[in-house]
Amino acid sequence: MTDPGGPAEDAGGLDAAFAETVRRSGASIGALYLLSPDERVLRLDVLSGASAALAAPWARVPVGAPAPVADAVREERTVWVGGQEDMARVYPRTAAALPYPLALVAAPVTGVRRWGVLLLMWPATRPARMSARERGGIEAGCRRLARLIEEGGGLRGRCARDRPPRALPPEATDGATGPVAAAADFAERLPGGSCALDLEGRFTYVSSGACALLGRGAGQLLGTLPWQSLPWLDDPSVEDHYRAAVISRAAASFTARRPPDRWLDFDLYPDASGISVRVTPSGTRPPFAVTTRAPAGGAYGPARAGRLYQLTHLAAALGEVVGVRDVIDLVADQIMPAFGADGLVLSAVEAGRLRITGSRGYPRETVDRLDGLPVDTRLTPAGRALESGTPSFFADPEEMRELYPKAAPISGKQAWAFLPLTVSGRKVGVCVLSYDRPHEFPAEDRAVLTSLAGLVAQALDRARLYDMKHDLAHGLQQALMPRTLPDVAGLRVASRYLPANRGMDIGGDFYDVIRLGDGTAAAVIGDVQGHNVAAAALMGQVRTGVHAHAKLGTPPDRVLSGTNRLLTDLEPDLFTSCLYAHLDFDRMRVSLASAGHPPPLLRLPGRPTRPLDVQPGPLLGIDPDAEFPVTEIPLSPGMTLAFYTDGLVEAPGTDIDEAIGRLAADLGPGDGQDPDTLIDILLAASGRGGQRTDDVAILLLHRPTE
Q1: DSSP string, 147-203
Q2: Rounded to 5°, angle at Cα 523 from 522 and 525
Q3: Which whole-number Å values give the CA distances from 97 to 90, 164, 314, 502, 649, in the listed order?
């Protein structure tokens, strides 16, 4: 078995299969992403139809990102985006970073395990739907790629860690071998000027007419990027027209001013090998012309527009993070690789000290050494950067030793960027990016990192506030929920509470089992509207009210009536559903009353599980004089009652009665599983074990057979 990262013939075999899949699909651009060994990041391995520099902003995609390639590998499904409108609706962050008319498909490359994703892109002129035949061909190509990776030992993805993406050369066309002189003569005879750019954006041909219009000789232009060799084209909007033509394969046009006052029209015509450009004089200044000028700092690097889109992408991502851990993961997974950093330390200001909230690329002992430094520390540049509000950049250890002789040996790193995090003049923390080798910080990188520091500061500040609120609410909720359920003779009890994992991870769901005396007990489950501190607080009041009335031996209808009057007096502006059951082991009867709560599931030995027909009264907290009908059933040996909240069955576009019916059917006939196993079955059948937008509470009561 060969190493796919080693022998050229193995790499060539995978590359050939990739190129063949792209060709058969008719896509203009193809890219193969491979999973990192820890399966947290997709790394771009090889692409065709575009340059590696053009794809740099998307060379690494976190598996958890809201992006087509991430969804494809995470959910192991083929993702189709039919156009720009679909992209903006389903993937708004990707649409901001890739604002071109195009269609794309992301298909998982899966065999014995997940290996990565195949990304294919077409011009927006193709049909908006993908046919079954097209889908089948793409998925067959993905299976072939997976098989080739596995035959090579599955090491290619690991080798991709330190290897930059590779761009395959374009295939030769039938006209590629035509007479070069005849082609040049043809271009020279045309009015105006003619140019050719490769997929990197570099001049490969310039006619004499183009040289005259652009004001440069062919020797000064060939092999250069237009926005570098022609200062008056040094504007990201000009490069963006080139990017749009390459990615969308659609013609593009723009007008620019060659100083001092000559206006030129540029028409771009792309194909798989490059771009043909027609340059002609403009008769008059157009009303929507692009006026360009060279920035004072000199030419930007070849991926300037890409950096702008990357900044837009990262800004959108930082706006979506919730907790501090999310901020740390985003900086580590997206900002670090975007700037080639090897290490990260993110510190927050707490009680006059810099507490490290997260780090990457540092040993534990180094993190412990740096944690808790005073905010005005002079051991490292962090204190001065935070005090002045100005980032500090050190390209090598010598620069660091001149000002901070003790700092460099602590981490062993070779270059650093210290970014102060401030919000409206308030000190939030410091973000440190570091490098294992000396690293220059061009003016563009410094400007972008400074801008990102402000966004990170705001995200970190919001995240810390969110975490504080979450901890408060979560602590309140945990204090109000029962820590353990009491043992009741003749009854086996199991419970489960799963908070919503979108939002504050708290809510108003509650349950309880109450031992009333020798031979009687009560069970209750309820759901307070909302997912915040108010919902958690009201949940505690409802549970206390139910418990107080139940302890008096009150029948179910009067328990709910008394609790209802309590809530209407409080006027909480939140409504509560509740299901209360009184179990009488002497009479072998169960009495139930409901306040707008989903019906329990009844499971009997040898019989299908079904929803119990309990006539509900209104929700608690609406009508102080509401009545709550009582339903009575036998307390049969072997029976199980499953109480649950609506988070288990409600979903957009789903009929709740049908969902309850399916849940009952999935629970199956009344055989011998224990209550905890039955809860696992309920969660698996409902699909609520993963992402949840609502709380889920489940309480199971099982009467063992005598």
Answers
A1: HHHHHTTS-HHHHGGGS--EEEPPPPPGGGGS-HHHHHHHHHHSSSEEEEE-TTS-E
A2: 150
A3: 14, 21, 9, 25, 37
Extract the tokens encoding 53.
Answer: 């520099």
SS3 category, 292: coil
Reported as type and span, the H/E element at residue 356 is strand 353-360
pLDDT tens per residue, range 387-413: 988 899 999 999 999 999 988 888 889
CA distances from 181 to 13, 14, 209, 256, 279 (A): 36, 37, 16, 31, 21
Pick from 139, 26, 32, 3: nearest CA to 79: 139
DSSP string over 38-96: TSSEEEEEEEESS-TTTTGGGSEEETTSSSHHHHHHHHTS-EEE-SHHHHHHH-HHHHH
Are 257 and 214 within 8 A, CB to CB? no
Beta bridge partners of 642: 601, 700
Neighbour order of strands in the sheet with 601-603: 492-498, 696-702, 640-644, 601-603, 610-611
- DSSP-derived letter for residue 621 is T
Query: Which backbone phi and psi does 428 adopt, to 5 degrees?
Result: -105, -40
Least confident span in 95-99, 176-180, 192-196, 371-375: 176-180
**CA 439: distance to chain centroid?**
30
What are all long-range contacts of 203-210, with beta carbons under 8 Å and residues at least 24 apart?
A: 203/229, 204/274, 209/279, 210/277, 210/279
C-alpha torsion sign, points 322, 328, 332, 338: positive
Q: Which residues pair with 80 in a beta bridge?
A: 105
Question: CA-CA distances (angstroms) from residue 545 to 539, 560, 620?
Answer: 10, 9, 12
What's the rounded Cα separation, in Å, for the pair 226 and 110? 41
- Read off the pLDDT of each residue in 291-312 and give the average, rounded to a whole number: 46
Tens digits of residue pLDDT in 124-148:
778 878 888 888 999 999 999 998 9
d(CA 586, CA 501): 43
Tokens of 98: 């890739």
Considering the entire predicted model, what is its pTM? 0.51
- The Cα–Cα gap between 232 and 292 comes to 6
Q: What string of DSSP letters covers 484-523?
A: SPPPBTTBEEEEEEE--SSSSS--EEEEEEEEEETTEEEE
